[in-house]
Design goal:
Length: 506
């Protein structure tokens, strides 16, 4: 019978730049994954940090090439969409490549402040502030603007600008307007709820921005939910957007930029071969063609790639802890983690990832279903992007099988939460960061250990009495007062009683 490596080599061009096999074991960006597992165990999340910079530079190169090819006179600015992954190690890595930032929440702004405090950004870093903004968000943004940060609120509704009228005092306040796109024809709604409808953009400018000598409209923004892809839908939305830009630019000379959002896709299968350069070429060519047709200077182009920045840096590795043949045909490989909690996109949005075994590549293979640890019947994974079946090595009782999901770096914690309470109390796995030193050697560091039960008990409100008593006792040892002694004794008695009750119940 053929081995797993034969299957992969017959189905794909393998090895790839990213994946290789040595001694029967998988390498991810030349990192021997079994070494990492042997050191840290499973389930394990990992982030290969150099990938983040690689993708930022790739995107810059696509735009540089396209600008050269079409003699495009504008500039290109790379922003990172923080909601894809807010982790400090992601932002700090991305910021080594002189990127700018797109935010979507008031809680992003303390992150911006911290990045400024630690010298990762300067006041000239663009902060493109998207999202439907509640008062705290507009207040934080106004404070940044008043202090001279290069923050640009992207207006998402007609009332938002009133906050900046009241809260800003800077000489110049630059704005963007997000224009609501039409959704893809098969979507539940016709027009996106996000942004301002095409018909209202002109009036918003004329009534609220133009009359205010401190206010400038600098940018128009649109985001196509389904991503940048070569479809009639994408091209028609981009064209409509660019015609609006030209119409607005003719009456608003300060308008000189467009933000075409995120949506550059990542590889979800060994077969995907998205032609990034060609797509960027066509976008640039279309923008230029429409501007030329309307006698309008071409805009500076901003993007806010989230998945593309961070997605391919991430992986999750599991051990197969049991094999269950539940009928004559359906074989389950049970993993030591869960799809619902660790990879919520795979469960909630049917998102596919590159999935491969980490070891036993010389073993024969079989069709399997992967089962997660929660009790939810939906906690499984059994198809791939390119195939309706899933194959993994057959392994004996003496062997251990490890598997990996790759390109999982974006949105999983934004959707599933991190370090909180999840289905069946499945803990957040240990997370390891992998980097390269100046000589190119692999350097690893633990970002976080696996979540412990203490942190869950705390979130769930258990053990409060105990904590109260311990804290008071500490204080009492400093200077006991009679009424405090009485109070503590009373609380202690309550806590003791509760503990006793729990023991009895057990
Ligand atoms: C306004 C906006 N910009 C950028 C992004 C990032 O998209 P992606 O991760 O597909 O690049 C999103 C994602 O939802 C978004 O809503």
């Amino acid at each position: 019978m053929k081995s797993y490596i034969d299957l992969i080599q017959q189905s794909f061009e393998f090895p790839t730049m990213e994946f290789n096999v040595e001694d029967n074991q998988l390498l991810f960006n030349n990192v021997p994954l079994m070494d990492i597992i042997n050191e840290h165990g499973t389930p394990l999340k990992l982030t290969y940090l150099p990938k983040i910079g690689e993708h930022i530079e790739n995107a810059r190169m696509f735009f540089r090439n396209a600008f050269k090819r079409h003699n495009y006179k504008g500039t290109y600015t790379y922003c990172y969409c923080t909601k894809s992954s807010h982790f400090s190690f992601v932002l700090e890595e991305a910021l080594k490549h002189n990127i700018h930032i797109e935010t979507s929440s008031s809680y992003d702004i303390p992150i911006i402040r911290e990045l400024y405090r630690t010298g990762h950004i300067t006041k000239s870093t663009y902060i493109l502030a998207n999202g439907f903004k509640r008062p705290l968000y507009t207040q934080y943004l106004s404070e940044l603007i008043n202090e001279g940060f290069n923050a640009i609120p992207i207006l998402d509704n007609l009332k938002e600008i009133e906050s900046y009228e009241q809260l800003t005092n800077a000489e110049t306040v630059n704005f963007g307007i997000r224009i609501a796109t039409d959704e893809e024809p098969n979507f539940a709604f016709y027009t996106s709820r996000l942004g301002i409808r095409y018909n209202d953009v002109l009036d918003l400018y004329k009534e609220k921005i133009k009359p205010n000598p401190r206010f400038n409209l600098k940018m128009l923004h649109f985001f196509i939910n389904t991503g940048i892809k070569d479809s009639a839908y994408y091209w028609s939305e981009l064209t409509r957007f660019m015609f609006k830009y030209c119409e607005m630019q003719k009456i608003c000379p300060e308008l000189d930029s467009i933000d075409i959002g995120g949506g550059l896709p990542i590889q979800t299968s060994l077969t995907s071969n998205y032609d990034y350069q060609q797509m960027v070429d066509e976008i640039v060519e279309n923008i230029q063609w429409i501007c030329n047709k309307n006698n309008v200077p071409v805009p500076h182009i901003f993007t806010e790639f989230g998945s593309y920045t961070v997605g391919e840096s991430g992986a999750v590795m599991y051990k197969v802890i049991d094999k269950k043949l539940q009928n004559d045909k359906e074989l389950w490989y049970m993993i030591d983690g869960s799809f619902i909690t660790h990879l919520p996109d795979s469960w909630g949005m049917n998102q596919k990832y590159i999935m491969m075994p980490i070891n036993n590549w010389d073993n024969p293979y079989q069709k399997v279903n992967l089962g997660g640890l929660t009790c939810d019947s939906q906690d499984f994974y059994n198809t791939e992007m390119h195939s309706s079946d899933l194959y993994l090595p057959i392994f004996t009782e003496d062997e251990t099988q490890y598997i990996g999901f790759f390109h999982t770096g974006a949105y999983q914690e934004s959707l599933g939460g991190y370090g909180g309470i999840q289905h069946c109390l499945i803990p957040a796995p240990k997370h390891v960061l992998i980097d390269r030193d100046e000589e190119g050697a692999i350097v690893t560091r633990v970002f976080a250990d696996a979540q412990d039960s203490e942190s869950m008990l705390k979130i769930l409100g258990y053990g409060r009495d105990r904590a109260f008593v311990e804290k008071k006792m500490e204080k009492l040892q400093e200077e006991p007062r009679p009424e405090e002694v009485a109070e503590v004794e009373e609380k202690g008695a309550v806590a003791k009683k509760a503990e006793k009750r729990q023991l009895i119940q057990k």
